[in-house]
Write a structure and sequence with these properties.
The chain is an alpha+beta fold. The chain has helices spanning 81-85, 87-103, 111-125, 130-141, 190-201, 214-232, 237-248; strands at 2-16, 20-27, 31-37, 55-63, 69-79, 164-167, 172-175. Helix 2 runs antiparallel to helix 3 and helix 3 runs antiparallel to helix 4. It holds the Pfam family RecO_C.
Length: 256
């Protein structure tokens, strides 16, 4: 058993027996780990307030090579308050956590993915457009699923500017001059493809704002869904939830 400290984000938790919990945490230094937390429902347990959804902290851990690890404590706790209090932000954030859980195996060291996830969740918590942050995350995490579409240039001629569409046949974007080479291309709106190409390479640490109108957002969503259906093939409950949110979110808005 190895004693360690690491920054971490809670992926999910569930009750185990009457007083205990199983908590899965994505740690910066040891990948995803499942922890057994004994007596979490007892009064005055210091970990009770820490092990809430959408919480980032430095966890003090006993890591086991096989089986469940154990949590000894936590410090520098940062609850993502805005996400915790908003069902819509929580929906997008849960989806990001679920994508990470699906994208890499447990106990795989991946500090870059941890830092990217942390950045995206903190941006959502700080009021950035959760839908666009989610799209950027989806596009950039494709490589963790072994998918590497060519977005930066036309796969036929190398052109980097103009109107583009995506071709499964060629595994990347086609410029307008070569649309005819694949009649089964995505037929995506050029503005949406522009943003997806941008999302693939954008550095979120340097972005102040990204504004996208509602119609283009819908087309971005449609195209990214095509990527995931064709190349990844996962169907997460949290993804269905955010899809359904658009149908009923207006019902929750107060009458003017």
């Amino acid at each position: 058993m190895q004693l360690a400290e690491s920054r971490g984000l809670i992926l999910f938790s569930r009750d185990y027996k009457e007083k205990d919990k199983l908590v899965k945490i994505f740690t910066e230094s040891a990948g995803k780990q499942m922890f057994y937390v004994k007596g979490i429902h007892k009064k005055n347990n210091p970990l009770t307030s820490v092990l809430q959804n959408f919480t980032e902290a430095t966890f003090i851990m006993n890591l086991k090579t096989d089986g469940l690890s154990f949590l000894n404590g936590a410090k520098d706790v940062k609850p993502l308050i805005m996400i915790q209090q908003d069902i819509f932000l929580a929906g997008y954030s849960t989806y990001l956590l679920n994508l990470v859980d699906a994208a890499i195996e447990d106990k795989i060291y991946d500090p870059h993915l941890y830092q990217f996830l942390s950045l995206c969740l903190n941006l959502i918590n700080d009021g950035y457009d959760a839908e666009i942050i989610t799209n950027i995350f989806e596009v950039q995490v494709l490589q963790r699923f072994g998918v590497a579409p060519i977005f930066d240039h036309c796969v036929i001629c190398g052109k980097t500017s103009g109107r583009f569409d995506y071709s499964s046949k060629f595994g990347g974007v086609l410029c307008e001059d070569h649309f005819a080479m694949d009649e089964h291309r995505y037929h995506a709106d050029p503005t949406a493809m522009h943003f997806i190409r941008l999302f693939n390479q954008v550095d979120l640490t340097k972005v102040k704002t990204i504004k996208v109108n509602a119609e283009v957002k819908k087309e971005i969503r449609r195209v990214i869904d095509l990527f995931y259906e064709e190349y990844v093939g996962i169907h997460l409950k949290s993804k269905k939830f955010i899809d359904d949110m658009h149908k009923w979110q207006n019902l929750m808005k107060p009458d003017s």
